[in-house]
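Table 4 source record.
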Amino acid sequence: MKTSQTVAESIKQKSFSKDSINKTDFNLPKGYTLFEKIQGDLNGDDLDDYVLIIKGTDKKKIVVNRFDKKVDRNRRGVLVYLTNKDKTILSTENLNCFSSENEDGGVYFPPELSIDIKNGKLYVHYGHGRYGYWKYTFRYQSSDFALIGYDSSENYGPIINRETSINFLTKKKLIRENVNQNTEESGDEIFEDNWTDIDIKDLYRLSEIKDFDELEINREN
């Protein structure tokens, strides 16, 4: 996502000593507040890095929904700080890539966003309860976070109807389809695996994704 300030310019201006990391609000961009902080090693140096989920504070985005309840529809974004020796430096920023946690899900409830750091990778996970989930896997490279994997599960309650896994590095896509039409009665899914190649030239980068809701990752290639 492009902003009035480039990531490179931000890196020069936004760095903190490790000793002050818990005493600062990371100088959040004007018009944003901290929504959530996640920490873990993202670049393999055994030092904690920080992922901040931020949220807009525009009062005009606080509206009354169809249930006559006042909700905050400000969008959310992400800042990633990497710790390098005695400094923590802004690596990646994207100020509006996530919708509000108060979006209207229509006849369904909206999916729940969660962020996790595990084994040096950054995971963006959307849980949709009994309907399944979808998850994006990012890895730090070239001063940004590249999308290297996508996984999803389409469920009907406890029954898995379809699973999708995409590896953008190997350019392979796996679809596992439950072909047992009597799963509700028998309780056992029977999966058929279908591998295909995907056509992709460049990896998505976290800083450039305008809206996760509009990413067409799980399309047929």
